[in-house]
Amino acid sequence: MSSQKPVLSLKDIQKHFGAVTAIENFSLDIHPGEIVALVGDNGAGKSTLIKIISGVYAPSSGTITIEDETVSMASAEIARSHGIEVVYQDLALADQQSVYMNMFLGREITNRFGLLDRKTMIAETQKLVDELDVRIPSPHATIRDLSGGQRQGVAIARATRWAKKVILLDEPTAALGVAETAKVEEIVESLKARNIGVLIISHSLDQVFRLADRICVLRRGQQIGIRETAKTDKNEIIGMITGLQQQDAA
Amino acid sequence: MSGPQSGAAQKPAAIRFALGLNLQQYVVYFGFLAIFLFFAITLGDNGFLSVRNLSNIVLQTAPATILAIGLVFVLTAGEIDLSFGSIVAMSALAAAVVMNEYGMTAGILAGMATGIVAGALNGAVVAFVRLPSFLVTLATMGLFAGIARSMTNLRSIPVLDLDFAGFFGSGSFLGIPSLIWWTVMAVAIGHFIYRETRFGAHVMATGDNPRAASVSGIKVARIRLYVLTLSGGLAGLAGLLYAGRLQAAKYTLGESDLMTVIAAVIVGGTLLHGGKGTIIGALIGSLMMGMLNNGLILMGLSVSDQMIVRGLIILAAVAVSLREKAR
Ligand SMILES: Nc1ncnc2c1ncn2[C@@H]1O[C@H](COP(=O)(O)OP(=O)(O)OP(=O)(O)O)[C@@H](O)[C@H]1O
Ligand SMILES: [Mg+2]
Question: Is the pTM here over 0.90, yes or no?
Fold first, then answer.
């Protein structure tokens, strides 16, 4: 895996909000087909980091590289055009609309007369939810009528439909029950086969150890360290999160 | 709630798929039918059912239906327009004044341009100054009404051009009155844009969840500008229709349309808080309101009694359709 070139590479990222330092000196490589977990206490800067990668915030300094090309994520559109998709903590779905319209929100397929091509959108949606095994009644279902797990499934399916390189997940199971969490984890797991790099934020260490190949710990904006899941344990990670263990030598 | 009903409420989605339709949006058809049957039975001998009376209802509701189409777009985008009635008056007066000087084409352009500019002003303030449309259009409702009053010092302006009066009012084409042509065309085009284009989809997304729309790359500010401009443009067209039918323009035109049109759209099945609506429903809602006006007049009610009964019926209809949607 490490022999492969990283799909996304962050180097010396810093972010200040006025006098507040939200992120100081963050560096991370994510490889294709790899799941990296980002953990840390509330306010550690995890969501801020995701917003920097997805073009919502500009970093105060540092570089973002996608497959050897240094890019400026000046807007969410630019990030999307580089193949990066986000599943937000608070779902960014339009509740009154159908699953298939959400799947293509802002990127609707049109026919040669410039009119909505519902047939193609419905067919593609059906195909994708089948592949990812997101169990929804129909692509025509209204989001409002779905359960939390089904909605998160739709959000991840949408990200999968459009992400060519990286998917960022901000606490995708925070609001879900046990069975729904398991379903979402299964879907996230299946992204590996698509050779997409995944960065997932989670407060559940059990989940992190189930899913992630590597774990990256943030504490109050500082990058404490990165561990391979196979070579660490919960105690070490908890120590890193809470500050019992000091920052790795840079 | 009784047994079978709660059973149905547990799986509204399943039922909707089974029937291929959205039950919520069909309340208006039952209301329409109920009011029609009521008047048909009680007023059948008083000429309610005559072809002439029924077609009159459609002719008289033409401007309200056109306004309702604009409001469906505005409400769906999560905004409101309270100023369209005042825009109707301004546009009709502008058209009449310019037409009497420079002829029909110039008059039509003046009327339409007035509506579009007024709507674009609403839209620009809402989209780019980021003020709530409720407050913006409440203010411009007064502003435009004042302008309409001062344009001709409260005088009514006759529309002398008979081509114009025929085209927008009393004329007909292929045996069908021109007001019906306008209604059918506006509804067909409005429905088509609303349902079949990306613009329609973006209007729905903007009203449904502006943040989701915007992170999905939809320019929500632009959508808000466009829907309010569209509403202004359709108010301009409604002004032309009034001027054509009455062969005169006056500052009072459109004054009484605000409540009727909002009621028609809400009863028709468009959500007040955005995200979902229907043009066809708004047409039926508008016809229902027209039928109500007509029937109450035929019943011989005094103007004040008409207002009271109409107010109560609108209240009931809106309550029923909002309750349906809240489930
Ligand atoms: N727009 C902003 N303006 C000012 N400060 C901000 C802004 N966004 C985040 N911060 C600050 O940056 C720090 C990191 O916030 P962030 O939301 O990234 O935390 P988090 O790790 O995602 O926390 P949680 O686990 O609670 O979601 C916090 O101190 C927060 O108050
Ligand atoms: Mg967060």
Answer: no
